Amino acid sequence: MTHATVSARPVADIQAEYQALIQRKRLYGGVILAVFVAMMAAGFRIADDRNAGSFWNGITHIFDYPSEVLSEAVEKVSLLPAHVVQFFPALIETLNIAAAATLIGAIFGTLLSLLATRGLARWPSLIPVFRRLLDIFRAIPEIVIALVLIFLLGGGPVPAMIAIAIHTAGALGKLFSEVNENASLKPVEGLASVGAGWAQRMVLGVFPQVGPNYVSYALLRFEINIRASAILGFVGAGGIGYELRNAMSWGQGRYDEAAAIFLLLFFTIVLVDQLSGLLRDRLTHGAKQ
């Protein structure tokens, strides 16, 4: 047996083992995909059987409602400016809910993120507690919190603001903690060496490093909260979502109002997205020369 044959055998064995491994992975992937498709099909069939109407019968009418709204809106297009003026205060209320919730959530998210970051935490032994608290705030949907608060406090913008603020604190706290982990500890250690307290070390040593990212994430969350506050209006939490629910509930005859609210909400979200995007780009990349 030559030296070339001896050295070639291990390479061939490695190639064979690699091909076998690839085939097993493909087999496992195919089995998992087949199980997933079967579960989805079975779940869809069960849901369709329990639904009030058949999915296949209802899907043919999916554009009936939008066409009715659009046709009535076109017929009453002359009333559109008056409807925009009428519902503009409700839009301002929605923006106020989102802004207040974002501000309160960002404040609590900042505090919790610092308490949940290694090297920055005031009480290192409690880091897991604060992290789980952020997980809980982030895991519970806003609409669930809002429904509980509406039951306790009654309808209005306050339950919506509190619900969105709680979820925002969890979401921003998670993002802020990831930003904090990339911050340099040298300024913090330098401040500690001259006797600075924990709050002073955070404000003077950490915030200058993470401030732009904090504001960028808060602006992004403000965009999300505008949509959330509009959705919560459907469960009685005030704002433009509440007016939209009323307009849709009355049915024909008030579809022009629903169309006006849709347009008002759409253009507001687009405008806020564009302005927020410009501000976030300036904060993270600086002013373009």
From TrEMBL:
Pfam families: BPD_transp_1. Keywords: Cell membrane, Membrane, Transmembrane, Transmembrane helix, Transport. The keyword Plastid does not apply. Residues 91-276 form the ABC transmembrane type-1 domain. PANTHER family: ABC TRANSPORT SYSTEM PERMEASE PROTEIN P69, PHOSPHONATES TRANSPORT SYSTEM PERMEASE PROTEIN. Belongs to the binding-protein-dependent transport system permease family. This is Phosphate uptake ABC transporter permease protein PhoE. The gene is phoE.
